[in-house]
Design brief:
Layout lengths: L8 H16 L4 H4 L4 H14 L24 H12 L2 H14 L4 H4 L1 H6 L4 H10 L5 H27 L5 E8 L9 H7 L4 E2 L4 E2 L6 E5 L6 E8 L5 H15 L4 E8 L3 E3 L7 H6 L9 H11 L6 E7 L7 H13 L3 E6 L11 H10 L2 E3 L3 H12 L1
Parallel strand pairs: 5-6, 5-8, 8-9, 9-10
Antiparallel strand pairs: 1-4, 2-3, 6-7
Helix pairs in contact: 3-4, 4-8, 8-9, 9-11, 9-16, 13-14, 14-15
């Protein structure tokens, strides 16, 4: 076990100064110094709420009144998302309690009129998922409708990206009578329609468009087990995983399972076709037991040599890490493929425990960060 040096006295002093600076707020920079990075973001998030003590309605966005959920000024949802990203769970609970009980910042959880007028966006979706446990039934029904509209937008964007790699390779030797835009053969179409050129109009009339055929992939059905870490830092990954799983669900080449986990394991495969139901069941903020999730994935596998276990996590294991390695070794040793996808931060940069990820790679797992389209391409090559 490696030795970890205790923090120096200078580091301890800086930590105490930062904490006091966050408690006291603005006006003490000359004594305690300024803040930067995430500490400055924490200060802004606290000021958004607690500055109301001195100036009701004031916020860090320049004094606009709170309560506007319009597309151009998502003050409350953005603040909720920042709080859940920047603070530990106990602090989040205290901030939420103060927001609701002390400062009546209730727009997201009690005001159905505001939610009914809100424009769907991914920022608003995340804020709803963070606060749905605080909503009454009427507001929750409106929130669910918002979630459905945002999910529909994301599905439209991702569905073709995910399914395209499974549609087969172009067969340029054969023509097809099926008119699909992605199979359009522009060269043959132009060449064979040159006789319809109208020089007086300087226009080419395409009377007969030509399309490529596609080669069908002859594949046995593979089993795809998607494990998604739902701890507090994983919300963006959970959203994309739920939607990606729904896209995979209808592919004949795959039999898809979707499993959420923190310190417990919840199989939501029955809701896989509807990512809205999946997302509304997410419980953010718990611990993490990756080893237990891998153990459950192993129990689902029918044919190890035609099984892929997709682990979406930040690799920060809360349980003894030895079990995680043992379960990974058992899956890989049985002939299954283990693919670990690192969580992405809000700027799409990978955020994960590099040591654990490196150890899994040494055991034979594939580890990386992929967009949904890149993931689909990787799986299509594996099962093709």
């Amino acid at each position: 076990m490696s030795n970890v040096s205790p923090p120096s006295s200078d580091e301890q002093t800086r930590t105490r100064q930062t904490r006091w600076r966050l408690v006291l707020g603005d006006g003490v920079e000359s004594t305690l110094g300024g803040l930067s990075g995430e500490d400055a973001e924490r200060d802004a998030a606290l000021a958004y709420l607690y500055n109301r003590e001195y100036s009701p309605g004031r916020n860090v966005r320049g004094g606009h009144p709170a309560g506007d959920l319009g597309e151009s000024r998502l003050t409350v949802p953005e603040w909720i998302n920042h709080v859940h990203r920047l603070f530990p769970q106990k602090t989040i609970e205290r901030i939420e309690r103060d927001a609701l009980e002390r400062y009546q910042l209730q727009e997201m959880v009690t005001n159905p009129d505001l939610l009914a007028r809100a424009q769907p966006s991914q920022t608003l979706l995340k804020a709803v998922l963070h606060t749905k446990h605080l909503m009454n039934e009427q507001v929750l029904a409106l929130a669910r409708d918002l979630v459905r509209r945002v999910v529909a937008q994301l599905m439209e964007k991702l569905a073709s990206e995910v399914r395209q790699p499974f549609s087969g390779a172009l067969d340029r030797r054969r023509r097809s009578l099926v008119r699909v835009a992605k199979n359009f053969d522009i060269r043959t179409t132009l060449r064979r329609n040159l006789k319809h050129w109208r020089p007086d109009e300087k226009r080419l009339v395409l009377q007969t468009p030509h399309f490529y055929s596609r080669v069908r992939r002859q594949t046995d059905r593979w089993q795809l087990v998607i494990l998604v870490d739902e701890s507090g830092s994983m919300l963006d990954s959970v959203i994309h995983a739920a939607i990606t799983a729904a896209c995979f669900w209808n592919l004949r080449a795959l039999r898809t399972h979707l499993v959420l986990f923190d310190t417990a394991v919840v199989d939501v495969t029955e809701h896989c076709v509807d990512p809205v139901e999946t997302l509304m069941k997410v419980q953010l903020g718990g611990g993490t037991d990756i080893g237990q999730a891998l153990n459950y994935a192993h129990s689902l596998i029918d044919n190890p040599r035609r099984a892929i276990v997709l682990l979406v996590t930040d690799f920060f294991e809360g349980a003894p890490v030895g079990r995680l390695y043992a379960e990974a070794r058992r899956i890989i040793g049985g002939g299954s493929t283990l693919l670990g996808l690192a969580a992405l931060d809000p700027d799409a940069r990978p955020r994960y425990d590099e040591h654990v990820a490196r150890q899994l790679a040494q055991l034979g797992a594939h580890v990386g960060a992929m967009t949904p389209g890149e993931l689909a391409e990787w799986i299509a090559q594996k099962v093709g």
